[in-house]
UniProtKB/TrEMBL annotation:
Alphabetized InterPro entries for the sequence: FAD/NAD-bd_sf, FAD/NAD-binding_dom, NDH-2
Every FAD/NAD(P)-binding domain range: 18-353
Entries under Pfam families matching the protein: Pyr_redox_2
MF terms (GO), sorted A to Z: NADH dehydrogenase activity
Family indicated by similarity: Belongs to the NADH dehydrogenase family.
Record keywords, A-Z: FAD, Flavoprotein, NAD, Oxidoreductase
Source species of the chain: Streptomyces adustus
Keyword Cytoplasm attached: no
Record's protein name: NAD(P)/FAD-dependent oxidoreductase
Length: 466
């Protein structure tokens, strides 16, 4: 009998195949998107259902975060609303906190959990896709949790933009040289994509914004990139990495290789080489780690805390469990050396999601699975407006051609025609008109003005709660 029509588990008959997708990022969204196409008829007949559990009602296209921080793209165009692109799926806004795959149950907290007072929900499933992504890898550095800013979400990107412009306002209005120097010193920790692209775009934006300040010049600002290894942007190759260092230093950006952040307590960045920088801005982009929910499962993990997977994207040794992206250690079948795994980046995540969805559909229909195979084609990175580096199909590009390739590639990859058109329109308008340099930091505290009017003291809580 067709597996979609009759599924037996623990002695009970299941009338439909219940597919649970944990995570609404690259893998989660693209898997659900392809599944609702592959299982279109089954979903219509009620023989299958797809539930997506995600903390946010949108997927963030992270390669556009630096441009959103620089004001070149509107924040709402960097995200894709899941309810719009996944109309045949049930979207549940919440967090999966544990998975008991032996019992086929997931523990989920939702926005209503505290209000209900009944505790987390238990969701049952037949097939599970674990794609919770990753979280920032924060080290026990003094002051880091108190003062640093991350760069993984659109909220962090816009918050950082507001913060940088606010620091320029502080420097412009203060009479204290020490406060001015700290306000105009920006320290970025981490020489990967996130750190280099965020630094390049924000320095470019701040340099442009300085023309509108009567007493702040570009040369007054200190931009510092701290990287623990001896190179940056390893994905674009050693030669392009060296070019990037040279290009950044030409813009008076200090690139400190082989250096670690030892402390940022009391708003002073102390580095391993002994340098000290009084600063009000420390941006932490020094790596990520697997989502904590993976440790709260009964599924096998590798030494880095990721799920052990097969080339078919099933969890090794566990039936009906699937994973891809940052959460998964997937063997690279195209690699010459044995034991190598695919890189945890968007290029693989999007392609893995398609194979994963196809394999779930094939499994439900009793068909053999496909093997994930993709040879890495290269990388592109933006260093600011009209500046970039690229290493694609063995060809190395830099400057304007690389920047143009960066934009063309990511425009082709951002989901939905709607978002492509909006991003392209904003790029066109930004080329015709001057860049926006307004800080809207008050959006982070929307009730502050009302609390003052009511005779109270503004709360630090963004929701305005006391």
């Amino acid at each position: 009998m067709d597996k979609l029509r009759r599924r037996v588990r623990h002695g009970t008959v299941k009338e439909r195949a219940r597919i649970l997708v944990v995570g609404g990022g690259y893998v989660g969204m693209y898997t659900a998107l392809r599944l609702q196409r592959q299982l279109k008829q089954e979903l219509r007949r009620g023989e299958a259902e797809i539930t997506v559990v995600t903390p946010d009602p949108y997927m963030t296209y992270q390669p556009f975060l630096p441009e959103a921080a620089a004001g070149l793209i509107s924040p709402r165009h960097v995200v894709v609303p899941l309810r719009r692109v996944l109309p045949r799926c049930h979207i549940l806004i919440g967090e999966a906190t544990a998975v008991d795959h032996a019992e086929r149950t997931a523990t989920v907290t939702t926005l209503a959990t505290d209000e209900e007072g009944t505790g987390p929900r238990q969701l049952t499933y037949d097939e599970i896709v674990l794609a919770p992504g990753s979280v920032s890898r924060v080290l026990p550095i003094p002051g880091l949790a108190d003062y640093a800013i991350g760069f993984k979400t659109v909220e962090e990107a816009i918050g950082l933009r507001n913060h940088v412009i606010e620091q320029m306002d502080i420097a412009s209005s203060t009479r204290d040289p020490a406060i001015r120097d700290a306000a105009l010193t920006f320290v970025f920790v981490g020489g990967g994509y996130a750190g280099v692209e965020a630094l390049g775009e924000l320095e470019d934006m701040a340099r442009y914004a300085a023309r509108y300040y009567h007493n702040v010049r570009p040369e007054d600002m200190k931009w510092i990139l701290v990287e623990a290894s001896d190179r940056i942007l390893p994905e674009v190759g050693e030669a392009m990495g060296r070019y990037t260092v040279t290009e950044l230093r030409r813009r008076n950006i200090q690139v400190l290789l082989g250096t670690r952040l030892e402390s940022c307590a009391d708003r002073v960045a102390v580095l391993s080489d002994g340098k000290r920088f009084p600063t009000r801005t420390v941006v932490w982009t020094a790596g990520v780690k697997p989502h904590p929910v993976l440790a709260a499962t009964d599924l096998p993990l590798d030494g880095r805390g990721r799920l052990k997977c097969t080339p078919e994207l099933t969890v090794d040794g566990a039936t009906h469990a699937w994973a891809a992206g940052d959460a998964a250690a997937v063997p690279d079948v195209t690699a010459a050396e044995p034991g190598k795994q695919t890189a945890p980046n968007a290029q693989h995540a999007v392609r893995q999601a398609k194979v994963l969805a196809d394999n779930i559909a094939r499994s439900l229909r009793g068909e053999p699975p496909l093997t994930y195979s993709h040879r890495y084609v290269g990388s592109v990175a933006s260093l600011g407006l009209h500046k970039g580096v690229a290493h694609v199909y063995g060809r190395k590009l830099k400057g304007y051609p690389a920047w143009l390739m960066h934009r063309a590639y990511h425009l082709s990859r951002v989901p939905t025609v709607n978002r492509k058109a909006r991003v392209l329109a904003e790029w066109t308008l930004s080329g015709l008109f001057k860049r926006e340099i307004v800080s809207l930091g008050s959006l982070e505290h929307p009730r502050a003005e009302f609390e003052l009017a009511a005779g109270g003291k503004p709360s630090d809580d963004p929701k305005g709660s006391s």
